[in-house]
Amino acid sequence: MPELGPVKIGLLGLGTVGGGTVTVLRRNAGLIAARAGRRIEIALATAKDLNKPRNLDLTGIELVADAERVVDDPSIEIVAELIGGMEPARSLVLRAINNGKHVVTANKALIALHGNEIFAQAQARGVMVAFEAAVAGGIPVIKVMREALAGNDILSLAGIINGTCNFILSAMSEAGRDFNEVLADAQRLGYAEADPAFDIDGIDAAHKLTILAALAFGIPLQFENVYVEGIRAITRDDVLYAERLGYRIKHLGIARQVANGIELRVHPTLVPARQPIARVNGVMNAVLVRGDAAGPVLLSGAGAGAEATASSVIADLVDVVRALTSDPENRVPHLAFQPDTLEDLPILPIDDIETAYYLRLMVADQPGVLADVTRILSDRGISIEAIIQLEHAALEIVPIVILTHRIKERAMNDAMAAIEQLSAIEGKVARIRVETLA
Ligand code: HSE
Fold this sequence. Notes:
Dihydrodipicolinate Reductase, domain 2, binds L-homoserine, Rossmann fold, alpha/beta, 11-stranded mixed beta sheet, 438 residues, 3 domains, 6-stranded parallel beta sheet
């Protein structure tokens, strides 16, 4: 190994991921140096409370309160931004880039919302911005999409990319429990984001899908064009009915190339129980990528957690260290495609997507209702795959569950509105999209 001095890192944030990064970098220091070609040393780290007791070996790390000191320090070559959120993370990352430093970040919201600006600035300054830890924690999905599948036309991807949603849906299925009870557990166990709405309303998954879709299709980052639905409306009964029909309900981020553009959507989805991704439970994440040459590639693993996420942060540090002396023109492009080849392909409005559907209607148990419902569907060209009336002892209003074949969402919205007008229908029709992922 050449006798170069250590590469000095400035760490912004000593929380869960920052702490995990310190621990793993120390534990595996020899292995990491042998792989990177130089030792990687955290020289400076910021923390909100400098005196907080920490179960970390901080020997040789100077703790500072002022993050600007870290991004301005001439001895720091790489800044690891692990504070999350929008500000001051965005300003600090841009300032580090302006100062000619490389950046490693775990900040999915920052990349999804400001990545286009950040990468343009990094490109102009000739520095790298690496973000493996921003999507699916310890799963090396960015590396796979950007490098290992570089020979493929990526046709689609579908991912369980929010561990909190997966934990809640898995617990609703395994223990037959209600959404609110399980959410409280997820918060107690520390899985949910500081604002749990980010998880359960699908925002966190949409940030991650924005990043994966850009890498897959060579399109700019565009969080604002992702259709987003969370899991609040999913009932314990929907989970059980789906299982009776041979499906599991998963909260998926889906990006797909179709003839007239790209579908970008995050929503609860019925997935056939036989699909391996349907068996990824608890806080685990998984991403299924379909390439024209490789076929389906399924990556699964821990989507969060101190050391799992640190694994990705450190992989990025090693990548950056290995490429420090390379010509910026010959590095792996930030978004997989060379920036001047990015295409603004149209993103389909949700009304224009085509998928199959699970519908649950609460109906008065009287003659002719089912005939009315099926007529509304057939008038709009919607073909039924299965229909079941579920027993509900001593109830006058009973659930009917319908699985349809694929149809445009616009036709389904129209059919649902017509069904809700029937006097025998109680309340709204519950609708969940169905994907075979085949
Ligand atoms: N809150 C996120 C999740 C953590 O539940 O997956 C990692 O982004």
